[in-house]
Amino acid sequence: MNKKPNIIIIMTDDQGYADLSCMGSPYFVSPNIDALASGGARFTCMYSGSPVCSPSRASLLTGRYPGNAGVRSILKGHRRASGLMNDTPTIATALKKIGYDTAHIGKWHLGVKPECRPGVNGFDYSYGFMSGCIDYYSHVFYWEMGEGENPVHDLWENDKEIYENGEYFTDLISEKAVSYIREKSSGDKPFMLYLGYNAPHYPMHAPKKYTDRFAHLPWDRMIMAAMISAVDDGIGMITDELKRQGIFEDTVIYFQSDNGPSRESRNFMDGKKDPYYGGSTGIFKGHKYSLFEGGIRVPGIISYPSKIMPAQIIDTPLMAADIFPTLLNICGCSCEEYELDGKDFMPALNGGAQQIHDSIFWEMDLQTAVRSGDYKLVLNGRTVEGGMSVAPVFLSNLKDDPSESVNLVDTLPELANSLTAQAEDWREQLEQTWEEKFAHRYTLV
């Protein structure tokens, strides 16, 4: 029997749709990520499960909409913070059951208290931080000081607190990933590595060796480009190690961002309150937190040289929750025992099916959205966190108007009413599930 493929899932943090050279950026340089795209498939219509960090990660790992996984919003960073629990299986849980070694390296952000950490959720090995963001050099979480929480050091290896003071975190986790691959490649078991880069999430930190590459850019774009370049170098180290070990051809590598770019003024670190423009959504409307395309459409790439033809561009609408069933089916395993919202997207590759989902849904606070075919409807849509609603109902044809610039509610009232009912029905069912299964977890004692 052939050995099952090794699997590497890579997720970046607050990276805009257009912030890779293979996604059209004229400013950023990402040759190693570009090589994965040219050697496999690049998704031009990949959606995150949410426009913010924690829910999007929960959706990727569980194959469910965030509300059905028990994580609907950005989770707190203090050590009492709840989140994902093992009554919702992860892809790591599923792969471990069929003989995989499993590892998490990097950002977790799915709960800090012991019953929410990686080791309880299917990962044999874990190295990284549990909160939403850390200083790249001290590895300290500062961002709830205004809520009365003290800063806290946040770097762990298998639930043991460790210290790597002064080491740039992006480089640390890339090196740790290479070491893990080197160790596991000689074993009898396949491995699954979930690599959560926190770049380019604030604080905007990058060593001089990366910023020098982009000294010609304005400060905000220079730092963003440098942070992504550090990630790209790390991915190059990883692919080089896979090739050195002779396992690159039979390793599945999936890459995506967790959500659209942040506009939070804290990104600048200059004491001012003006919005940050370091990340780019390209032609798309909205940013992190928004259910318009800029908040949820993300760069997505899959590489599996022995099975996936190179240089494919896939326009089929897909979502991060599809990764769970896709990977299980690649491994020749059934998904029947798992409650999943995602679907296997392999039929869309190698010249296959053009439609995987009838509809895809999202929710964020008062916003709800649905995409069905070429049409997308957003209820109470915001372009940025804290902004005013653009319209109670906004309907667009993404094929003709990918920028969501024209509201078709009055032009297509029957379709608007039908999609509104569909979105509201989905949201009502999700709210019921949340109250019955998950809401009690987030009451601090």
Q: Describe the biggest sheet?
A: 11 strands, mixed
SSE string, helices as H and strands as E: EHEHHHEEEEEEHEHHEHEEEHEEEEH
What class would the helix/strand composition place it in? Answer: alpha/beta
Mean pLDDT: 95
Note poorly predicted spans. Answer: none
- Beta-strand content estimate: 15-25%
What is the number of strand segments? 17
Compute the CA-based radius of gyration.
20 Å
What does the model show?
This protein has 10 helices and 17 strands. It is of the alpha/beta class. Strands 1, 2, 3, 4, 7, 8, 9, 10, 11, 12 and 13 form an 11-stranded mixed β-sheet that branches. A hairpin with a 2-residue loop joins strand 7 (156-157) and strand 8 (160-161). Helix 5 runs parallel beside helix 7 (219-244). The termini are far apart. The model has no long low-confidence stretch (mean pLDDT 95).
Notable traits:
445 residues, alpha/beta, eleven-stranded mixed beta sheet, four-stranded antiparallel beta sheet, globular
Task: Characterize this entry briefly.
Helices cover 25% and strands 18% of the residues. By secondary structure, the chain is of the alpha/beta class. β14 and β15 form a beta hairpin.
What order do the helices and strands come in, and which of them pair?
Blueprint: E1 6-12, H1 31-39, E2 41-47, H2 53-62, H3 66-69, H4 91-97, E3 101-107, E4 125-129, E5 140-141, E6 152-153, E7 156-157, E8 160-161, H5 169-184, E9 191-196, H6 208-211, H7 219-244, E10 251-257, H8 293-296, E11 297-303, E12 312-314, E13 318-319, H9 323-330, E14 360-364, E15 367-372, E16 375-379, E17 393-397, H10 413-437
Helix pairs in contact: 5-7
